[in-house]
Design goal:
By secondary structure, this protein is α/β, with parallel strands linked by helices. The protein has 3 domains: about 1-45, no CATH class; about 80-230, P-loop containing nucleotide triphosphate hydrolases (Rossmann fold, 3-Layer(aba) Sandwich); about 235-295, no CATH class. It is about 35% helix and about 20% strand. It is built from 13 helices and 11 strands. Strands 6-5-8-9-10-7-11 form a 7-stranded mixed beta sheet, sandwiched between helices. A two-stranded antiparallel sheet has the order 1-2. The chain has a two-stranded antiparallel sheet with strand order 3-4. A hairpin with a 2-residue loop joins strand 1 and strand 2 (about 15-20). Helix 1 packs parallel to helix 3, helix 9 (about 235-245) packs across helix 11 and helix 9 (about 235-245) runs parallel beside helix 12. The longest helix is centred in the N-terminal third of the chain and has 14 residues, at about 80-95. The protein is elongated, with a radius of gyration of 23 Å. The termini are far apart.
Amino acid sequence: MLEKRKIKEYEELETVALTCNEEYVSDTCQWVVDDNSFFSIGKTIQQLPPGFYSYIFDHSINKIRLTRIKVITDNILTLPDPVLNNILLDFQKFWENRERYQKYEFVYKRAYLMYGPPGCGKTSLIALLSKELIKRNGVILNINTVDQIELYDRVIKDIRDIEKEKPLIVIIEDIDGYTEFGNISRLLNILDGTYQTDNVIIIATTNYPERLEERFSSRPSRFDVRVLIDVPSPEVREFYIKSKLKPEDLARIDINEWIRNTEGFTLDHLKELILLTFVLDNPFDDSLIQVKEMIKNVKIKNVTIKRGLPTPVGFSNQNEKIKQ
């Protein structure tokens, strides 16, 4: 029989490999050929299952190893925010217009740069877009190490050699952090390097857009969409609060008081306020003071993006339409 053995790549990642024992004889076990070397493999598939993936270079097989990451996206909220909805619409239009890209001889790819204060929903928006891609049988690659930046061309080549039309999202969160380690040329290669590939959307995020050089921010072909994800509006805060609370909770609060007292709160701050008030059963006023004290004590380095102020060179304003 086929034996399953679990291999821990990281604490939160798990992949399942299939191996053959001595008693098992079947054509499902095959030989993998690497020049003049051969090794057995338990099972092969023609398509990567849709979902989130990380990747490493596995020295034991001298190949890239893709590992599927368990990410729950079922509870992601679709917030009533025009900026977020415009991004989602742009995302959907991209996947529906492959023929037009081919007609005008453009590489079938798109790149988004999302920037703004921490905790305002950039990661949640990425999860929402990824959920939409999974419906299209797509794969999401998470880049979160320098090694993965260096291996990018190789993993893309491996995927495209086997699945030429597989829809892809490539995520680079906190992209400004990688520019501090001398990886600018590698990042530029991902965005517009020599190994271009179709059927891909690249999504990068940063809390500090002023740290990015203009070669990232001002060239449209590198980031087609540059958008500020700012602190939520009163309408979004009301939607979030009503979505998180139970009917019996909503019946005993003044929702207008909550909205009025949470001006300038991020979604993370709202989450903490709800947790303190309803999970830990603290009085609302005490919880509010605690969260506001938390905000006050956070020391923001460099420039904090604020609603209504000029945005850095090469970046769109939140009130502008998405730049095509």
